[in-house]
Design brief:
The chain has one helix at about 170-175, and strands at about 1-5, 10, 15, 20-25, 25-30, 35-40, 40-45, 45-50, 55, 60-65, 70, 75-80, 85-90, 90, 110-115, 120. The chain is mainly β. The radius of gyration is 19 Å and the shape is globular.
Length: about 180
């Protein structure tokens, strides 16, 4: 996504994956752009220079809430000069420490299968129930209600709590076949 010349998009429940660019492979922000990004997932993007996930420059001001930025190359977020990215209640892969901001974490989000593009969360993901309700959409990218559990999830996909599988009982099956 390329934001320029005072653009102010609102981006919600979106995935940015498998993109390639010189800078800002997932999202490039420049010249006074002010995007608001909520419950989005950035993963598998590759930038030749900087900002595999998000790049901000030339007085761009990005606000990112309830996001996941994981597995982008060479880095998740890059701010050049006067560009800024404010991150809250998000999971951001960092070489060391946690990206500054309230509620941020730096732990593998536990995607179902990132290598094959499945960026949904698995049971036990640290991104489940750790987002904020402030500004969160009512549904996720698939139309599931938010929240599904005790709290709002980070990323584009709300974890869908499935019914547990029925236990297999060989005795019951044998009786049913008689």
């Amino acid at each position: 996504m390329y934001n320029w010349n005072e653009s102010s998009p609102t981006v919600t429940d979106s995935t940015f994956s498998d993109n390639t660019a010189g800078d800002g492979a997932g999202m490039y922000n420049g010249w006074l752009s002010t995007p608001t990004v909520t419950n989005c997932t950035f993963s598998g993007n590759w930038a030749g220079c900087s900002g595999g996930g998000v790049y901000s420059t030339l007085f761009a001001t990005v606000t990112l809430t309830n996001g996941i930025l994981w597995g982008d190359t060479p880095d998740e977020i890059y701010c050049y000069g006067s560009g800024t990215v404010t991150v809250m209640y998000s999971c951001v892969q960092m070489p060391v420490g946690i990206y500054p901001g309230a509620g941020n974490i730096a732990v593998d989000p536990s995607f179902v299968d990132a290598a094959n593009g499945d960026l949904r969360l698995i049971l036990g993901s640290p991104c489940i129930n750790t987002g904020t309700p402030n500004g969160a959409p009512e549904t996720d990218i698939l139309g599931l209600a938010r929240p599904e559990g005790a709290g709002f999830d980070m990323g584009a996909y709300e974890y869908d709590f499935p019914w547990p599988p029925m236990p297999w009982n060989p005795g019951a099956m044998a009786i049913g076949l008689d």
